[in-house]
Queue: 2 jobs
Job 1
Amino acid sequence: MRRFKVGILGATGMVGQKFITLLQDHPWFDVEILAASKNSAGKTFKEAVKNRWSMDKIIPKHLENKVIMDATNDAQKIAAQVDFVFCALSMPKESLKKLEENYAKMECPVISNNSANRKELDVPMIIPEINAEHMEVIPFQKRRLNTKKGFIAVKSNCSIQCYVPALHPLFENDIEKILVCTYQAISGAGKNFDSWPEMKDNIIPFISGEEEKSETEPLKIWGKIENGKIISNKNIDITSQCLRVPVTNGHTAAVFAKFRNKVTPMEAIDRIKNFKGNPKSLGLPSSPSKFIHYFEEPERPQIKLDRNLENGMAISVGRMRQDTQYDIKFVCMSHNTVRGAAGGAILLAEMLCREKYIF
């Protein structure tokens, strides 16, 4: 595999910082450009983040003095210098949607962590182990954009990254209804306890936009391509509640599921333990050796013990039981800024490179 030059849009934010740490020493990708808003443009990366560096690892030395470019006004320059960009910008949705499309039209593929383009029917929203086949919609998107190389691919919302993979091995039993409650870490809001002290010893029972995403995005992931568009699954009903909890990293979900073709807890556990994922997702630099880990212990999974499994790229599942109103219930967890954000986007980019959608 040849080496690819990449840019990070939104490099100063929490997800952008995670991209930087995960891409350090990556075997395929070299960070060529760091970009952010006009407020950070022209400063060195170290100057721009100042006391806002939130990662456990130090800033990579070779990026400390890299001058940040303006993700909007320097778009043409950025697109000309890289093979593709990761997007983790925080800006109004319509402006971001237009900006991502602008990069694609300049023949620069965009791998986005943002929600702006997730509802576009020809923009694939991919969890590589689950719906890699949705890559096949990209040529139709290129036709709409009138591009040869440029396109947009997105990763799904961090809140669904634990429970959709946990349910997917049971998909052949025809899922009818899902009830899910998510307990989401403060890093999902781009915060830590220093910047959000009121979250200590606190729970906030509302996260703007999360419940809609939790109820609709799985249906696109479980959808099918028809006539160059991804048609969402119409046979599954999902209801959710999303709460912000005083945890640094790691989203947990309590899940209840009902099936048209019944499945027992033991059958579900066996399927989950043996699920390997789509073959196209395997053997990539960021692929976990085991995608889903099932725990028999009743007190697992736990955030502190399990969020960093497989370098943060694994899904942890436990407490599978029969339910009195649904068929089964269980608890699952994943690292929201790794699998649920930067790590998931990097894995998606690796797959798109190996499958020659990025070239």
Note: The domain at 159-335 is CATH 3.30.360.10 (Dihydrodipicolinate Reductase; domain 2).
Job 2
Amino acid sequence: MLHVSLPKKLKKYVQGLTLSLLGTLTLSTSIAPTLSHAQDYPDHAVKWLVPYGPGGGTDIVARIVTQNMSTNLKQPFVVENRGGGNTIIATQALSKSKPDGYTAMQTADQLAANTSLYKELPYVANQDFEFVSSLVKTPLVMLVRKDLPANNMQELIAYIKQNDKKVTFGSWGIGSMNHLTMEALAGRINATPLHVPYQGAALAINALLGGFVDILFTDLGSALPQVQADKVKPIAVSTATRIAQLPNLPTIAESGFPGFDLYSYQGVVLPKGTPVAIVNKLAAAIKVALENPTVANDLISRGFIPVANTPAEFKAQFIKSEKDFADIIKSRNITLEK
């Protein structure tokens, strides 16, 4: 065998080049399966966790959207309701799931609110998940009981200031979006109306109809039938812009509270470490679903506004809402723990 003696400098160069080529080869072979996996994704059923029971707004949106995604991606997206613990049970389950894209969770604003409502959580919401896309935003309609002596925001604020702690407002539960929205408004007028939490939207709206509470912020799907039946009085909408279904109803912002813009939202998250290619593919599939006219019209008819965005945009939206909710929760001294 012929042996060639190389100069020392050339020998070091050859050794370095060899190591570099080996490193490139190793990196390319490690990336290849991930890219291949993303291209084939999904090749079997995807579990779609919903942190609430069946029949609620989050569940309805999940079933409308995933039906379209199942058709487009040719694999079943199986909705699994895992309610309880103010969404913590499902969220913790997601955090422990394999980061392969086959377990997703449809979350809501409650995930962001819980950061400030609880002293300890089994996860860090803005760090332990991959944010995929927003799904919908839900304006909240401010309703008052039919016989309350107020027909607009100015009259209602005067009534609240005059009666303050005698005034009651309902919600879907402590720390829920409609609770925080009313607290934000009360903070703007330095008032302390009495909060009466209920277990869900149906009980809260029935309490308003029965005269057990004076005020209720609720989603359009719950509000519209009662407004159309003239059983309650609508005062304003919580978003910065008016809503098409009630075009004459002013926003809170234009009723004397500039910048007021609060709403419920839903989106999708995956376990931390899910490959970026899979995150992006799922985000693209959500965008396609929400842009489908049948899907969009179905959601809009139920009071949801379809809003798809990128993973980066959704994470930014989530972090902003965490801060906004934290400000409300701290300033109004709201807590779920004694």
Note: The chain is about 45% helix and 20% strand.
